[in-house]
Specification:
Number of strands: 12
CATH class: Alpha Beta
CATH topology: TIM Barrel
Strand order of the largest sheet: 1-2-3-4-7-8-9-10
Structural class: alpha/beta
Bound molecules: (5S)-5-amino-3-OXO-hexanoic acid, zinc ion
Number of helices: 9
CATH superfamily: Aldolase class I
Distance between the termini: 35 Å
Strand content: 15-25%
Oligomer: single chain
CATH architecture: Alpha-Beta Barrel
Length: 279
């Protein structure tokens, strides 16, 4: 179970599922996303996990918009930008994969198909392998999203086939209907199976977010915070933006004596170059 000295906090401000009807403070425009990321960075977040929304506020894989949002965020602060290639349920795989052409430093890689609530999240093995190869060519660091135990094995097979470079970086996602339930036991099982030099974070969906984030930090893992993963700060109380959730994750890391990684420290623990490459 690899652990980093300081905790890397990732902000996930928007996600693909919630709308502003669910939480009016959800950032959906490029400006609102950049504002939320800048505020999160000031609070201690070192990575921004970004989903894009179109003018209709629905998830989009528009590469031009992706370039615009990445540039806007980078003009505000030096946070590490990670684009989601999960994008949104129902968006075709090829369109999602094309987002890496915007050359973010990091992007997610979802290794397996699965049920996702009442929908299907399609990640066919051949397409995933092709995307992993392309990310390697472009120097885009994949964050491997694992929603079930077998997803880890699929990633390890891709590593063995030379498609993924070490150190691997994982999100252990708990609480998606169709994936692992959000229980401490499942988190412990997955954390214990992490390769020795891997970096990992917990992505705990919904009500379990606080409890599982605390456990991940206590185990030496990293955490993700933001409205993508939970709309509430506590039961029945909507979060007033991303800041309260990021501030809470930072506080937890500090209270547990982990400390919070700067962007430079996050670069080191995630195996990224010391400085952002200019295109
Ligand atoms: N929305 C989370 C359940 C991705 O964007 O590629 C998983 C996620 C994956 O963040
Ligand atoms: Zn996401």
């Amino acid at each position: 179970m690899a652990s980093s000295a300081k905790a890397v906090v990732t902000v996930a401000p928007t996600g693909p599922i919630a709308s502003r009807d669910d939480n009016p403070s959800l950032p959906v425009t490029p400006e609102a996303i950049a504002d939320a990321v800048q505020e999160a960075h000031e609070l201690g977040a070192a990575v921004a996990h970004l989903h894009l929304r179109g003018e209709d506020e629905r998830p989009t894989a528009d590469v031009g918009l992706a370039r615009h949002v990445v540039e806007l965020v980078q003009s505000r602060c030096d946070i590490l930008v990670q684009l989601s290639t999960g994008v949104g349920l129902g968006v075709p795989f090829d369109a999602r994969a094309a987002l890496v052409e915007a050359r973010p430093e990091m992007a997610t890689l979802n290794p397996c198909s699965m049920s996702f609530g009442q929908a299907e999240f399609s990640n066919p093995p051949k397409d995933v392998a092709r995307l992993a190869e392309r990310m390697r060519e472009l120097g885009v660091k994949p964050e491997l999203e694992i929603y079930d135990t077998g997803h880890l094995d699929a990633c390890l097979r891709m590593r063995d086939a030379g498609l993924l470079a070490e150190p691997l970086q994982f999100s252990i996602v708990l609480g998606v209907q169709g994936g692992m339930a959000a229980t401490p036991e499942n988190l412990m099982t997955m954390a214990a199976r992490m390769p020795a030099d891997a970096a990992w974070q917990v992505v705990a969906i919904g009500r379990s977010n606080l409890r599982l984030s605390a456990i991940a930090l206590a185990l030496g893992g990293n955490v993700r915070a933001g409205l993508e993963d939970t709309l509430h700060v506590r039961r029945g109380e909507l979060a007033d933006g991303n800041a309260p959730l990021v501030a809470r994750a930072v506080r937890l890391a500090e209270d547990l004596d982990r400390g919070v990684a700067t962007v430079a420290e996050a670069r080191e623990s995630l195996g990224l170059p010391r400085v952002r490459a200019t295109a």
